[in-house]
Design goal:
Bound molecules: S-adenosyl-L-homocysteine
Radius of gyration: 22 Å
Strand order of the largest sheet: 16-17-18-20-19
Shape: globular
Helix content: 25-40%
Number of strands: 20
């Protein structure tokens, strides 16, 4: 979501204010940091970066520093108190005000702070334009109402608000006309999308069906879905829409019902497993990934073992896992936490080893098969290779200098599995 927001900040400044991307930080008039506060570590990085930028500002006093995103939203003017080099603070819902805030700072030399939540206002300011990239993000629902006990998002991004389907389809059509072939629908709680279509409340399933009808859209993804709101129509859409990829990110967080309750996740493991089964009934090749929090306050060895059992049962593919990080103004931050840091690290290592093992196993099973891949571009490490993605979300590298293949779906013979990607050759 931050990548999408950052791209929109740039479009806005470029189109409305004729800004250009500076060649280096030293040549910039404005430096923008789009921040994340999901864990403490991400937040601390912000102040280190401002410290580096302060030195550039000492040499170039006209330089303005703007801090956006969730740390800005959470800390507001406290950012400027701690880091006086900062001139502008704006939140995820006020990014469209950046030109105005910049101009005001220029004129008055007064620091500018706007971290309000004016609902969907930003979408009427952001220019709708193509990216020319094979895959593009589109935000469809902003914010979250879930208030999971560990999570800062409802406080920093505000409450859920869905764009209208007409507005979203318009953005997707412009992207498709400019060469995009894969649409990645985004939301903190994307499957609770309730945008209207022709004035009536609609759903993510309906939006996926309508997106699939847009010419040249060959693949559709969505992130992140919450297991609690995964409705039947979304399960059924896997049967109806072949462009919908065979991979879903469905964060479970823990395999222990006791911990899930303390996390306020609103489902238990039985319900989660039932959902996985229903989706696999419709799409047997489906690949599942998840997020895991290890060392939630009071997590016992038994709770942790239940998470490991769940991993073995579902057989998750490439997942994300984190040590619990207490966040400001969340209910979990007041819970007693008697698990030592060393114990948490040990559990995280065990869990990550198992996830990596499973993921490598899935990759190895693909060796010898032919995979239909959307070509994304040149491999970053080796320009003699192109890079694509399989329908189940695996990165595939293959030797080719044919740039015309970028944005096309082609068949690749898979020859080799590496821990994080596959290698192959074009199938003739
Ligand atoms: N909306 C998604 C979560 C998005 S945040 C959901 O509800 O599932 C991405 C991931 O960061 C979460 O799934 C969780 O695993 C992790 N995370 C969030 N808050 C955290 C915290 N306080 N400590 C550690 N990990 C956290």
């Amino acid at each position: 979501m931050n990548e999408y927001d950052s791209a929109k900040m740039f479009d806005l400044l470029e189109e409305k204010e004729n800004f250009e991307l500076a060649k280096s930080e030293d040549e910039a008039d404005l430096l923008i940091l789009n921040t994340c506060s999901i864990r403490e570590k991400a937040q601390e990085k912000v102040f280190h970066q401002i410290g580096r930028w302060r030195k550039i500002k000492e040499k170039n006093p006209n330089l303005k520093i703007a801090i956006g995103g969730c740390v800005a939203s959470q800390e507001g003017e406290k950012i400027i108190k701690r880091a006086p080099a900062v001139d502008i603070v704006f939140g995820p819902q006020t990014l469209h005000k950046l030109p105005e805030l910049y101009n005001k700072k220029e004129k008055t030399n007064l620091n500018q702070i706007d971290i309000s939540f004016p609902k969907l206002e930003k979408f009427s300011h952001i220019p709708i334009q193509g990216t020319g990239e094979p895959s593009a993000f589109v935000s469809i629902i902003e914010g979250c109402n879930k208030y999971c006990s560990f999570c800062v998002v409802p406080k920093t991004r505000g409450h859920e608000v869905s764009r209208t389907i007409e507005d979203i389809l318009n953005e997707i059509s412009v992207l498709a006309d400019n060469g995009t072939r894969e649409i990645h629908l985004l939301g903190q709680n994307v499957n609770n999308f309730k945008g209207t279509f022709k004035g009536e409340k609609s759903s993510l399933a309906k939006l996926i069906e309508l997106t699939a009808k847009i010419e040249n859209i060959e693949r559709i993804r969505y992130t992140t879905s919450h297991p609690h709101e995964f409705k039947d129509d979304l399960v059924e859409v896997y049967d109806k829409v072949p462009q919908l990829v065979s991979h879903v990110h469905l964060p479970v967080q823990s395999g222990s019902d006791r911990i899930l309750k303390l996390m306020r996740r609103r489902y238990n493991i039985e319900k989660y497993l039932n959902l996985v089964e229903r989706i696999r009934d419709v799409r047997p090749s489906m690949s599942f990934s998840s997020d895991f929090i290890v060392g939630f306050p009071g997590e016992t060895d038994v709770d942790f073992q239940k998470t490991m059992e769940l991993i073995n049962e579902v057989k998750f593919d490439e997942s994300f896992s984190f040590i619990y990080s207490p966040r400001p103004n969340t209910t979990a931050s007041d819970m007693a936490d008697d698990v030592t840091k060393d114990e948490k690290k040990k559990r995280l290592n065990i869990l990550q080893d198992r996830l990596n093992q499973l993921s490598f196993g899935f990759s190895r099973k693909k060796v010898g098969s032919i995979q239909n891949c959307l070509v994304y571009g040149q491999s970053k490490r080796d320009p003699g290779q192109l890079q694509g993605r399989t329908i189940c979300n695996r990165i595939v590298n293959f030797p080719s200098n044919d740039i015309d293949l970028v944005g096309r779906l082609i068949n690749i013979n898979i020859k080799e599995a590496l821990p994080n990607c596959l290698r192959g050759n074009i199938h003739n």
